[in-house]
Amino acid sequence: RQLEEIEGISWIRLVYLHPQMLKSDLIDYISKSYKTLPYYDLPIQHIHDDMLSRMRRQVRREKIEGLLSEIRSKRPDSTIRTTFIVGFPGETESHFGALYEFAESFKFDRMGAFAYSLEEGSSAALMPDQVPEEDKALRLDTLNELQFEIVASKNRKLIGKEITALIDTVSAETSEAVGRTMADCPEIDPIIRIRQKINGDKKSAALLKSGDIVRVLVTETDGTDLIAELKAA
């Protein structure tokens, strides 16, 4: 609330909201806020209760699904980002199958996936049933391929629509500026490449500057990234 009172701050993005600690009052606040973005970086790590217990996540599938449902019901345009770990000690094909089906069904807006890496001295390193490296790699590729298609499909639905973008960098030599939408956290999420059109001709993006918040028209996609045009008022 105090941050929102500061002039010059337009977007506030909360990151790494642990599922155990995210409460309804914060979801309510974000859903009604005009500065704090409806962006939920919610690291779930897994969805099968067996794996959540082994990871000591202190939260179960029912709680996770309840949070996700609450977020989307209170503000359907919310962006939900998560992270998953595959190949944690004890993960079976059945456990991974449950994770894959969950990700396929829920269709997260953004997702990061990682293969478990043994950290010497950690409690997980001493667990039995370590997953072979080749199985970890296959599961990671499978999950990443699924998420790529989910994001690409969501992006295609944006073609022809106007959205808001924040400019990060501007090239004085090309017609492009690079920015991000409200759904994209810097460095970890996709970007949006923006071209200007003035009197129908492509021009340098010199009129834009870092920090500008503009309305753009999405014209095409490039995998997980968007391409858009800024038109003169």
Distance between the termini: 33 Å
Strand order of the largest sheet: 4-5-6-9-8
Based on CA inertia axes, which overall geometry fits?
globular
Radius of gyration in whole Å, from Cα? 20 Å
Oligomer: single chain
Strand content: 25-35%
SSE class: alpha/beta
Helix content: 25-40%
Q: Number of DSSP strands?
A: 9
Mean pLDDT over all positions: 92
Topology as a string of helices (H) and strands (E): HEHHEHEHEEEEEE
> How many distinct helices?
5
Summarize the structure in words.
With 233 residues, this protein is an alpha/beta fold. It contains five helices and nine strands. Strand 2 (79-86), helix 4 and strand 3 (110-115) form a beta-alpha-beta unit. The mean pLDDT is 92.
List the helices and strands and how they pair.
Blueprint: H1 24-32, E1 39-41, H2 49-54, H3 61-74, E2 79-86, H4 93-106, E3 110-115, H5 133-156, E4 162-170, E5 176-181, E6 192-198, E7 201-203, E8 213-222, E9 225-231
Parallel strand pairs: 1-2, 2-3, 6-9
Antiparallel strand pairs: 4-5, 4-8, 5-6, 6-7, 8-9
Helix pairs in contact: 1-3, 4-5
